[in-house]
Write a structure and sequence with these properties.
Layout: E1 3-7, H1 11-23, E2 27-31, H2 34-42, E3 48-52, H3 60-69, E4 76-80, H4 85-93, E5 98-101, H5 106-120, E6 133-135, E7 138-141, E8 146-149, E9 152-154, H6 158-168, H7 177-185, H8 194-206, E10 216-219, E11 223-226
Parallel strand pairs: 1-2, 1-3, 3-4, 4-5
Antiparallel strand pairs: 6-7, 7-8, 8-9, 10-11
Helix pairs in contact: 2-3, 4-8, 6-7, 6-8
């Protein structure tokens, strides 16, 4: 039974989500403010977090950033009534895995949650068959689900890792943003392809090539290509 944490100050939203998600087989916990929400999330044990942007005490941006800084890589689906591209980019830059504007269709929310859980809950199959991939000074250990810079682990959150794994297992291939959304996020793209751009920018920062991309290259007008 997947455990979901709802952090939202709107009682009606919490009640609606609790009822529907419980009926769908989720174990649901909910919190109404950012400070207690962050403390609850920090305790661990959750499979996914639904995080409102506008919260009393501490907003969703700060909560998400603090969770990522603390090494909490639980998938975060950010919910907000402010449907602007700036908010979307800000949320993704703070470590959110996906973004959904209120009011939303419950079927869309469930599909997004299922996609994130599917991607974070193990890659399936025999993990011993997943060989590591080396590029430059980095090694992607696919059994451990960890990127190493020489012997030191690099702190990627779950969606960053899944994107990197997809890219390195499709080397020298031009991948469109729409294809990456479908394959990595796991649903037909209803969100902006800017989602991919933000995650690529964060990966480049982790790889130390934000200014001069060496491995993760942009193919103008077509998408991205990863060079091992």
């Amino acid at each position: 039974m997947p455990r979901v944490l709802i952090i939202d100050d709107e009682a009606g939203v919490r009640m609606t989500l609790e009822d529907r998600l419980t009926a769908e087989g989720y174990a649901v916990s909910s919190v109404a403010d950012g400070i207690r929400g962050e403390e609850t999330a920090m305790s661990g044990g959750f499979d996914i977090i639904l995080l409102d942007l506008m919260l009393p005490g501490r907003d969703g941006f700060a909560v998400c950033k603090n969770l990522r800084d603390a090494g909490i890589n639980t998938p975060v689906l950010m919910l907000t009534a402010r449907d602007t591209s700036l908010d979307t980019v800000m949320g993704l830059r703070q470590g959110a895995d996906d973004y959904l504007a209120k009011p939303f269709d419950m079927a869309v929310l469930l599909a997004r949650m299922e996609a994130l859980l599917r991607r974070s809950g193990g890659r399936g199959g025999d993990l011993t068959a997943l060989s590591p991939v080396a590029f430059g000074s980095f090694r992607l250990d696919r059994e451990k689900g960890t990127l190493f810079l020489e012997q030191e682990p690099v702190n990627l959150h779950s969606q960053e890792y899944r994107l990197l794994e997809y890219l390195v297992t499709h080397p020298d291939t031009v991948l469109s943003r729409d294809r990456i959304l479908d394959e990595v996020w796991g649903y037909e793209s209803e969100t902006t392809t800017r989602t991919v751009d933000v995650h690529v920018a964060r990966l480049r920062k982790h790889l130390g090539e934000a200014e001069l991309p060496k491995h993760l290259q942009t193919v103008r007008g077509r998408g991205y290509r990863f060079i091992l």
